[in-house]
UniProtKB/TrEMBL annotation:
Identification of the protein by name: peptide-methionine (R)-S-oxide reductase
Enzyme Commission number: 1.8.4.12
UniProt family annotation: Belongs to the MsrB Met sulfoxide reductase family.
PANTHER family to which the protein is assigned, alphabetical: METHIONINE SULFOXIDE REDUCTASE (PTHR10173), METHIONINE-R-SULFOXIDE REDUCTASE B1 (PTHR10173:SF52)
Catalytic EC class: oxidoreductase
Keywords associated with the record: Oxidoreductase
Catalysis performed (reactions): L-methionyl-[protein] + [thioredoxin]-disulfide + H2O = L-methionyl-(R)-S-oxide-[protein] + [thioredoxin]-dithiol
Organism: Pseudoalteromonas gelatinilytica
């Protein structure tokens, strides 16, 4: 189980080796993705809170990166954080997500990106439920659910 200390170590000292890599030019991503998806995943945007019903649906399944199908989260780790974005307590594996220190917008946060294709997913915070205490606050548009 990952802890906040693990996340900080990755963000400041290097991330786990990804299971594979998918690299495309910005124009290739833009040609493949819907405009809103491109904005969030490739330009580090954020969707509006409560803009997806993904925050209120809690069913078995897996959540994968919308850009490269990398497995990110298991539905069993999803919880209602009340923030307006889907939230999870743990990634599917240590190698699924990479972490980047983010000081944008006058805040100190840890950005979560797909470790395979570098898609912006959201941020991780140390205010989640036990036992990990982690809250992966993800953009719904950056993921798709697989049953």
């Amino acid at each position: 189980m990952l802890t906040w200390q693990d996340i900080l170590e990755f963000a400041h000292n290097g991330n786990p080796k990804p299971p594979r890599r998918v690299e495309k030019s910005p124009s290739e991503w833009q040609a493949e993705l819907e405009q809103d998806t491109f904005y969030v995943t490739r330009l580090k945007g954020t969707e509006r809170p409560h803009s997806s019903d993904s925050c209120t649906i809690f069913e078995p399944g897996q959540y994968v990166c919308v850009c490269c199908d990398n497995l990110l989260f298991d539905g069993d780790e999803k919880f209602d954080s009340g923030t307006g974005w889907p939230s999870f307590t743990q990634p599917s594996s240590v190698e699924s997500i990479a972490y980047i220190a983010d000081s944008s917008h006058g805040m100190q946060r840890i950005e979560a990106v797909c470790n395979v294709c570098d898609a912006h997913l959201g941020h991780v915070f140390p205010d989640g439920p036990p036992p990990s205490g982690l809250r992966y606050c993800m953009n719904a548009i950056a993921m798709k659910k697989r049953d």
